[in-house]
Amino acid sequence: MRAVLADGSVVTVRSLEPGDLVELEHLHGALSAEDRYLRFFGAPSDTSINKFLRGLVEPSGAHVVALGAFEGTHLIGVGHYELVLPEVAEVAFVVEHARHARGVATLLLEHLVAAARQRGVRTFVAEVLAENSAMLQVLRDSGLPHEAHLDGSSYQVKAALDAGEPYQAKVGDRERIADVASLRRVLSPASVAVIGAAHRPSSVGNAVLHNIVHGGYGGTVHAVNRSGSVVHGVSAVRSVADIPEPPDLAVLCVPAESVPAVAEECGRCGVRALVVVTSGITGLPDVANGLLAAVRRWGMRLVGPNCLGLVNSDPQVRLDATFTAAGIPAGSVGVVTQSGGVGIALLERLGSAGLGVSTLVSAGDKYDVSGNDMLLWWERDERTRIGVLYLESFGNPRKFSWLARRFGRSKPLVVLRSGSSPIAQRAVLSHTAATATPSSTRDALLRQTGAIGVDDLEELVAVVGLLSWQPLPAGPRVAVVSNAGGLGVLAADACARAGLKFAEFPQVQRELADLLPGQASARNPVDTTATLDAATFGAALEIVLRDPAVHALVVPVLRTAISDPGDAVAGAVTRARAAGCDKPVLVVRPGQQESVRPLLAGTSQVPVFADSALAARTLADVVGYATWLARPSGAVPDLGGIDVAAARAAVVAALDRSPGGRWLEAEEVQGLLTSFGLSVVPTTLCRTEAEALAAFRELGGSVALKVRADGVLHKARAGGVLLGVSTVAQLRAGWERLREGFGARFGGVVLQPMVEPGREFLVGVLSEPSFGPVIVFGMGGTDTDLIADRSRRLVPLTTRDAREMLDELRAAPGLFGPDADRALDTGAVVDVLLRTARLAELVPEVVEADLNPVIVTGSGVRIPDARIRLEPRVLGDPFLRELGG
């Protein structure tokens, strides 16, 4: 996997293999005497070092994990751990002296933490010489809870592998610094070369060079083509090697078959970043692999292929490396789009609305630079106030979740949804050769991160306009004031459909009644009548805006021969702002040509919409973001009572017996859930009637009798569950009934004590190819199939996520609200969700789980039945899975 160091250079991090021994020996052989002393506490013999190195590239068993950081094929650092106890491993690092202070050891530590946690390791220990301040600093700055004790001449360091919020925040901070450093060569290059800058005006390379030259780019421009003549005033050379100084960025506009060789030449000459505009590469595996090999070998960043290019409107840069025709409107909106066509349309729409972009990256087939990278860039870019993404697939949803949540705390993020219909999903597949995003999970991801999801370009531009021109609403209560009663009613209907609430304002009604004509309506929606003059209409708006019950104001207006109330809006908003009123105002003017345009109101602008439905939908989108922003962020808690080592051992044993994966047996399910502290009802497996009788007598009281039969997963649906068995006679009769009912498939029964009745829910795990583990919560028991009432979230799950999953059920007010029919232990439900999410996170082999029913009472939770399916998985933390993602 590729990753970025603190200085922005790109390396590959992977497990060491026997073929790496020569590089490993070279790395250690080149260590200075001081570095060798700090690493090995002295001067070990060559024989002992050679034996140690062979143990890194040929580890015996899973007790040693060794990772290397490579610049191209050159090994610059190694980190490894070795188990000393089942949950404790000793960790150590060595880094090439010339690469010190570039974050190599820190990067290796992060990847070792991910690998160790997946294998059940909970603690790293290290012995570090007191004078090895650099390594001590790496451990101190890691974000892991740790302690260090001086013991003679060395420190004994112990670090808990807690991957909670503080650690992830540290990882995110380090990644942001490194990623931004690497992206400077992409977005703020000192020099750019266009390769394939042909003379033909119809060629893409000619258009890209034209836009760079005539867009006012402040750096050095180079042109490369086979003829070597002048294009757009730039003297072209025949190859990149002929450029005196290697450019920071090269834009490739050459035929697909030529791309790998050109990329290789760029890397060899010292180019640090590529934009590959060329299409058709992804459908040619040899070409695609050749491009990727060159990028990885030379540590280059890559935008594309199959892309429109990129833009940075910063006055100090002014780079338009695209083939758009209309120019780039400068502004404060950062854009990433996977579709060049969507990018062009969005630029035109933003420009017509008086908005513009700070940066635009057309990711195309998204081999490297992605939306996750740009979130990191925008977070530090003061010129970017709003982020916009159009993505047809998520490369690393878990990483996006972490980054988008943090980004959304300071700047809004708007995501244009795509691929919701089967036809659209087929189009996405043909365009990007990527897995289309399942819409329900994608929408859960957006809710989880606070991102604003929109369905078309019109809504996107409207949301960006409202966010750019007006303050955020403090709540969902809206007032509608119109000079045309019918327009007001239509706007009110649109607001109701969008989920907005209507403000009640008795005092305002009295003030409006004194101000407005007798035939006017002072109730919300307010109808001032069409005969009202503009000044009085403006005064009415100010009265409504002053009321604290109103969070936002929608103003549908029509011009008449008597007056144009729209003229009064700007003055009313200006005066209200001067008086300290900080509420969004949206005007609706049916019939205007633009779907949304700005109206100047003092130092601010008011959005004017052509349609009340768009205005209401836009306001609801922004209210949702403001509501998310106002809530506590939540945290991934450190849950007690979790035995990862036992869980991993159980999974390894199960997959040893069934390498391809399978549904677990009841006793295996019970062991796995218990290892994560979930309150499972004790289960006793009985293969014979005599065993069932003995278990029944031991349990005492009333029991549930459940069949074990080949191919039967839904026991209750198949008639394989008998409840309330309380006598020996009933047990014998039940055994016989199940044995006869299931015939040759019958393999015995499981017995469980009956539990206190309660409300039944479902908690599930589904590992989706595009997203990883998804947690599902909904109505359980017999309601599962009758009532499609579910909420979904991706791991990792925060306390806030879990609580919101409860509140999102349509039945939530009657279950968990203050007026619930019966008191339920909501804290226990939240705990089950969090523990199930941790199980899905730490045991990625769990590809499907169904805890149903989860029985909830006023005093806790019990889980009498659950199913879990395992599949073999490649271990590794997807948060650190791939640069960019």
UniProtKB/TrEMBL annotation:
Record keywords, A-Z: Transferase
SMART domains: CoA_binding
Keyword Electron transport set for record: no
Segments forming domain N-acetyltransferase: 11-168
Source domain of life: Bacteria
Keyword Zinc: no
InterPro entries: Acyl_CoA_acyltransferase, ATP_grasp_subdomain_1, CoA-bd, GNAT_dom, Ligase_CoA_dom, NAD(P)-bd_dom_sf, Succ_CoA_lig_flav_dom, Succinyl-CoA_synth-like
MF GO annotations: acetate-CoA ligase (ADP-forming) activity; acyltransferase activity, transferring groups other than amino-acyl groups; ATP binding
Full protein name: GNAT family N-acetyltransferase
